[in-house]
Write a structure and sequence with these properties.
With 222 residues, the chain is of the alpha/beta class. The protein contains nine helices and eleven strands. Residues 1-116 form the Response regulatory domain. It holds the Pfam family Trans_reg_C.
Length: 222
């Protein structure tokens, strides 16, 4: 999930729509709402956030350090001003990157992936038997060959791999893929995504690498 902070509802709604087209969950906040959420949200909610985009917050200040007290997810500033002074000021505030608008949504996603790779190079991929599962948005490889997957199925596989050996519930998978604020999609959609993913993996591997237990959830078989 991507979190966007901006005082302009038109901006947050616009980004939410663009991210949705790319199959990425997102949520928009005004700065005061965001501050309250940062101080009160559960750790599990923060684990579902892949990055924070900070836009125009008016007279309010969003502190990157307050975000990093809760999570290591990238904090990126979206700047309307194309001046060196503004860019330096934003970096001095502690953000990981400054993106000047207008910018294509895919560039934002690419920058987020690049920051996460640099921060966690040792976990950029996970090898499980014949599978190599990347954590930066690339399609997995089966026996060295790429296996194209829709974004949400790929994200589910990444999430299961990041919890390798541990069982995760349907709710945890849903929050990781759709975000904790999506009330328009039912959790049961996870079952459909995983069913399609398992079928594709079985066809390529000759076995089912995802174990499912009713009421307990899912895990990758190691």
């Amino acid at each position: 999930m991507i979190v966007i902070v901006d005082e302009r509802e038109l901006v947050t709604d616009g980004y939410n729509s663009l991210f949705s087209r790319e199959g990425v969950a997102s949520a928009g906040f005004r700065s005061r709402e965001f501050g309250e959420w940062v101080s009160s949200a559960a750790d599990e909610d923060f684990r579902s956030v892949h990055a924070f985009l900070i836009g125009d917050c008016g007279d309010s200040q969003v502190s990157p350090s307050s975000i990093r007290d809760r999570t290591d997810a990238p904090v990126i500033a979206l700047s309307d001003q194309h001046t060196l002074e503004q860019t330096l000021r934003l970096f001095e505030s502690g953000v990981d990157d400054v993106i000047r608008k207008p910018v294509h949504i895919r560039e934002i996603l690419a920058r987020i992936s690049a920051i996460r790779r640099r921060a966690q190079p040792e976990t950029s991929c996970t090898d499980i038997a014949d599978m190599r599962i990347f954590m930066d948005g690339r399609d997995p490889e089966i026996n060295g060959q790429p296996m194209p997957l829709p974004r949400r199925e790929r994200r589910i596989l990444e999430y299961l791999a990041s919890n390798r050996g541990r069982r995760v519930t349907k709710t945890q998978v849903f929050n990781a893929i759709y975000g904790v604020f999506d009330d328009e999609v039912e959790e049961n959609v996870v079952e459909s995504h995983i069913s399609k993913l398992r079928k594709k993996l079985r066809e390529r591997l000759g076995r089912d690498p995802i174990e499912s237990k009713r009421f307990l959830g899912y895990r990758l078989v190691i």
